[in-house]
Amino acid sequence: MMIKRIQLIILTAIVAVTSYGFTTYKNDFFEIAKQIEIFTNLYKEVNMNYVDEVNPAELMNTAIEAMLEDLDPYTVYWNEQEIQNARIRNSGNYTGIGADIISKSNAIVIRNIIKSSPADKAGLKIGDEIFKIGDIQVKDYNEDAGELLKGAPKSEVILELKRHTTNKKITLERGVVNIKAVPFYKLLKNNTGYIVLSKFTRSASSEVSEAFQDLKKQGATQIILDLRNNPGGLLSEAVNVSNIFIEKGTTITFTKSAIEKYNQTYTTQNKALDTNIPVAVLINENSASASEIVSGSLQDLDRGIIIGSRSFGKGLVQRPKKLNYGTQAKITISRYYTPSGRCIQALDYLDGKSIRKNKDKYTEFKTKNGRSVYDGGGVRPDIEVDEEKENELVKEIIKENLIFDFANTYLNEKEGLTLETFVMNTSVINNFQKFIDKKDFKFETKTDQKIKELEQIAKNENFLKSIESSIMELKKNLQNEKENLLEEESETLRKLITEAIIRKLGYDEAVYNYYTQEGEVINKALKALNNKAQYKEILGF
């Protein structure tokens, strides 16, 4: 049986390579066939002769993943479930409970809840730790326990969870969850329309259009489009969103590839809604891909000003390729470029390692009005705001969910606190400092790693005793620098902690309202839009 399975795999591989050979535009058929033959022979010999029993499927998965790791982070292999998840992300609709989760070894933690979703209606709260789903204990489930929350519309599931110190049992009815691409928009002071675009799903451009037209009816004479933390999505929707402000027939982006058929130019296809209204686009280092196409095109065409911090720099284009048994490969086929000719991509990849271009190697390009802009990855704002930049220490704190955990702990201790009564002050920040100290949070830098390497080398070469005091001094100075980093980022931490607390008290809507009232970036955008002379000067008019 094992031999038959291996023969089938080899036959499938040979057929695939043969088919590829007749359709590829590259002249490397012989080399591909040669390497496949070597691999299939090795795969057969290992499966038939290895001293211990091996799992052929797991072995093949390991080989595939190792091969793709040498390329870039976006060229990946998808099984059927991952394909379905991608479709859900692009559509903005799925059947489930309407909550973001954090998967832990013994529980699923509710990270965020969509207002009026099945999770919300059932009474789930941010911070709830679900330890049992139906008859299954999360700690005993070896696969992704989050999949257990999905199911047919109107189907029920019983959840057992821990909320602070109390165990609860909740019956939840699953339903269709609609995730809005535009979760919030509002008319601000000085007749400024504010639109948040959180992702580029299939409905992104239509939702932005509806919000834009409603705001104009309310009296908006200028627009802030917030793309901060928007990871991207569908390219077609990025072009359509740009089209709202840019006239028909204008190039928004183009792609370059080693294969001619993938070289494409994407232009606006519809009549613009408004080509004159002043526009400010907000970005940060988490604004990626489609977000960078919109912000980069508006900047290159001098159609709007860009405010915030340099965007992520994801300019590689992927295309899904169908494989056998319902699987797919998502393969990088080309690079994105903005209208001026800038490449959005920040990193090159060689043997699985990322390489960033040095600043002195950046290339200058010109906008429509002759302003200088540069490549080197991502979109650099016209007005930079330090608040939007996060150092490595803050990123590590976020990665470890320390701000999220603190917000839950803080609110559990402040029972009865509401949006109206919550006040952010220095005592909250001090409490956070004590919280991470109790958690024994360790931030290891590359310098820490090098010092450890130095210690080990010195020990191996019997030099440690003579330089030990110098190493201790290095460690002490490094620790002082880390503490300074935390102090330097006190305003950023203050903002992030406030967001986490008010989200738990009043959903995402409360966070967006907080941005409009207290956000430095939005205030900078308002000032820039209200100063007509500055606005025109930035755009080169």
From TrEMBL:
Keyword Lipid metabolism among record annotations: no
Which ranges carry the PDZ domain?
82-176
Recorded hits in PANTHER family, A to Z, give: CARBOXY-TERMINAL PROCESSING PROTEASE CTPA, TAIL-SPECIFIC PROTEASE
At the top level of its lineage, which domain of life is listed?
Bacteria
Q: What Gene Ontology biological process does one annotation of this record name?
A: signal transduction
- One cellular component GO annotation, for this chain's record? outer membrane-bounded periplasmic space
- PROSITE patterns this protein is in? PDZ
Q: Which GO terms describe its molecular function?
A: endopeptidase activity; serine-type peptidase activity
Family matches, as Pfam families? CtpB_N-like, PDZ_2, Peptidase_S41
Entries under InterPro entries matching the protein: ClpP/crotonase-like_dom_sf, CtpA/B_N, PDZ, PDZ_sf, Peptidase_S41A, Tail-specific_protease
Alphabetized, the UniProt keywords read:
Coiled coil, Hydrolase, Protease, Serine protease
NCBIfam families documented for this protein: prc
Task: Indicate the segments annotated as coiled coil, or none if absent.
Answer: 464-499
Fetch the Gene3D superfamilies from UniProt.
2-enoyl-CoA Hydratase, Chain A, domain 1 (3.90.226.10), 2.30.42.10, 3.30.750.44
Family label: Belongs to the peptidase S41A family.
Q: What is this protein called?
A: C-terminal processing peptidase, peptidase family S41 Prc
